[in-house]
Every structure is written in C-alpha cells, then in structure tokens.
Amino acid sequence: MKLITAIIREVQLDKVREALIEADIKRITVSRVSGHGQQRIEEMYRGQIIIPDLIPKIKIEIAVNEAFVDITVDTILKSARTNGAGSVGDGKIFITPLEECIRIRTGERGGTAI
Fold first, then answer.
1. What is the CATH number of the domain that holds 45?
2. Which one of 48, 84, 95, 98 is CB 3.0 to 4.6 Å from 1, fit for a cystine?
3. Which domain does 30 fall in, by range?
4. How many domains does the structure of the chain reveal?
C-alpha cells in the first residue's frame, strides 16, 4: 500500500479529479494548502508590485494498493500539467509507504480497507 500526495495548482483540481475518476480512482482527499517553491507570482497592490510569500495550492491524498500506484501517478502527471507541456509551479507528487489502513466502520485492515 502507498499514500500518494500531490500538490497541484488550484485551477487544475477539476481536471485532475475527472481524470482520476475516469481511471477508476474514486476515493481521494482534497485540502487547500499554501506554500512556495520556484514559482513566482507578481501581483499589483496599491500601485506596487508585490510577490506573495505563500501561494494557494491544492493537496490531494490518495491511498492505493500497489497495482494502482503507476496508474494514479500517470493520471495526475498528465492532467495536472499546464498547457500539456508543463511549467514552473505545476506541483509535486510524493509517494510514501502506507504501513496500515483500517476502515473504522467494519474494522477491515490492509488493502481491503482501501
């Protein structure tokens, strides 16, 4: 089992979510987060150019069995890229081992709980 965490642009959420549903990945968690990396956005505020420290992003978390890792990552990669080619600020994907998953309602454990 793996936990896939993707940080993407806010505007790409619907496109990514629809692509995941098409790939038969329907159980996701979405959070609004802020952060910064290489992306720089200049905004005009009261006649002055400012560069915000934190940029709003979307964090998607998906717990998957081993068979769905590549499908999930490829789907996010294809759908989260800006203009199909990608640009600075499109985001990151992190894959971490998931030690245990327990469904609260039934008490199921492991891959069947996902």
1. 3.30.70.120
2. 98
3. 2-113
4. 1
DSSP letter, residue 102: B
CB atoms within 10 A of CB 106: 9
Residues 22-39 have pLDDT tens digits of 999 999 999 999 887 777
CB 1, CB 110: distance < 8 Å: yes
- Report the distance separating Cα 42 and Cα 71, nearest Å: 35
Does 3 have pLDDT greater than 80? yes
Sheet containing 29-35: give its strands across.
Answer: 29-35, 55-64, 2-8, 91-97
CA–CA dist 105, 114 (Å, integer) = 12
**C-alpha to C-alpha distance for 70 and 62, rounded to whole angstroms:** 12
